[in-house]
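ok trying again, last paste got cut off:
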Amino acid sequence: MSEAPASPNERRTFLGIILAAIGAFAAGAFGWSLFRFLSPVDRGGEDNQVRVTRDLVAIGGAHFFAFQGRPAVVLQPRAGEFVALSAVCTHLGCIVKWIDESQEFLCPCHAGRFAPSGQVLGGPPPRALDTYPVILDGDDILIG
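nice, full thing came through this time. structure:
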């Protein structure tokens, strides 16, 4: 009992079906990735405020934390004065570093420099770091 070999038309039809299935899968994967990239980020009900204790922020120092899923920093330039900023460089989105010696932020990617207030001191960044509202609540700092 042997079966007759498939005709060239049957082979072409089978190959066409397989290639169409692979193409549909690849298009679906690409389309889903594109949809996820373009859709807004779901913050998952994150709080609009972050509570940081004053003890974590030394005078002249900085404390990095996450605010709404993005890096942020709070500093205390003078006793009792607090400033909260985004830690994301406005040039290409790198995370800035606090330099204690010079009391400024430095972007490690392209040497952008920012003052403790977030203003651009030098380098390629087009604008200042984003600022967040700060409220003092006893021994805590409420950011956002």
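cool. The chain has two domains: 1-39, 50-143. The helical segments are 8-38.
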